[in-house]
From TrEMBL:
<keyword id="KW-0648">Protein biosynthesis</keyword>
<feature type="binding site">
    <location>
        <position position="150"/>
    </location>
    <ligand>
        <name>Fe cation</name>
    </ligand>
</feature>
<feature type="binding site">
    <location>
        <position position="146"/>
    </location>
    <ligand>
        <name>Fe cation</name>
    </ligand>
</feature>
<dbReference type="Pfam" id="PF01327">
    <property type="entry name" value="Pep_deformylase"/>
</dbReference>
<keyword id="KW-0479">Metal-binding</keyword>
<keyword id="KW-0408">Iron</keyword>
<protein>
    <recommendedName>
        <fullName>Peptide deformylase</fullName>
        <ecNumber>3.5.1.88</ecNumber>
    </recommendedName>
</protein>
<keyword id="KW-0378">Hydrolase</keyword>
<comment type="function">
    <text>Removes the formyl group from the N-terminal Met of newly synthesized proteins. Requires at least a dipeptide for an efficient rate of reaction. N-terminal L-methionine is a prerequisite for activity but the enzyme has broad specificity at other positions.</text>
</comment>
<feature type="binding site">
    <location>
        <position position="104"/>
    </location>
    <ligand>
        <name>Fe cation</name>
    </ligand>
</feature>
<dbReference type="InterPro" id="IPR023635">
    <property type="entry name" value="Peptide_deformylase"/>
</dbReference>
<comment type="similarity">
    <text>Belongs to the polypeptide deformylase family.</text>
</comment>
<dbReference type="InterPro" id="IPR036821">
    <property type="entry name" value="Peptide_deformylase_sf"/>
</dbReference>
<feature type="active site">
    <location>
        <position position="147"/>
    </location>
</feature>
Length: 201
């Protein structure tokens, strides 16, 4: 059973290149009805896009906020809403990198390897202003880092070498015709995708 809010409306996903994707977003200070509607819509949009996480700027809203529904290394499903996230990563001998594939719903269809610490912890508040803390390994660790990056105006392509970034954009261009401008309001064109089992955030 989901602990995330339901009954939201699916919104178009904002793509890389839009200004809101590449600047530090505004802290959440108002926890009223407008925020509750936004969070519900973000959950609906994430689910429609079959992603495991979605930040507010990915639906064009300039706020430090993300929602997620993502498994950890053992397959345990973790869900949450985080406003004003603060990321904590292991340091020194506790820091191990995971070179897994990564994708972004704002650059649909493209994936490449991106090295990130294999454990992450995020603290913040939920959509009601109550303190929350999430931590984990595997895909969950990658998701928490990826979404916190979004709130700071960073996309995962910013973490890639020029060669990998070029390859990523080439793959995105190849699949671009499959994703309508208002995706996932309008579903993507079905095709065989070697990354269909790799969720994006």
């Amino acid at each position: 059973m989901s602990t995330l809010p339901g009954n939201g409306s699916v919104r178009p996903i904002t793509r890389w290149g839009e200004d809101v994707m590449h600047r530090v977003n505004q802290p959440v200070t108002d926890f009223g009805d407008e925020l509750q509607t936004l969070v519900a819509d973000m959950v609906a949009t994430m689910n429609a896009a079959e992603g495991v996480g979605l930040a507010a700027n990915q639906v064009g809203v300039d706020l430090q906020l993300f929602v997620f529904d993502c498994p950890d290394k053992e397959g345990k499903r973790v869900q949450g809403v985080v406003c004003n996230p603060v990321l904590e990563l292991p340091e020194g001998k506790d820091r191990n990198l995971d070179e897994g594939d990564e994708g972004c719903l704002s650059l649909p269809g493209a994936f490449t390897k991106c090295a990130r610490p294999d454990f992450a912890k995020v603290t913040g508040v939920d959509q009601h202003g109550k303190p929350v803390s999430f931590e984990g390994d595997g895909l969950l660790a990658r998701c928490l880092q990826h979404e916190t990056d979004h709130t700071q105006g960073m996309v995962f392509g910013d973490r890639l070498s020029r060669k990998y970034k070029k390859r990523l954009f080439a793959e995105a261009e190849e699949f671009a015709p499959d994703y309508p401008a208002d995706w996932p309001v309008t579903p993507m064109v079905e095709h065989e995708d070697e990354h269909e089992d790799t969720p994006a955030t």
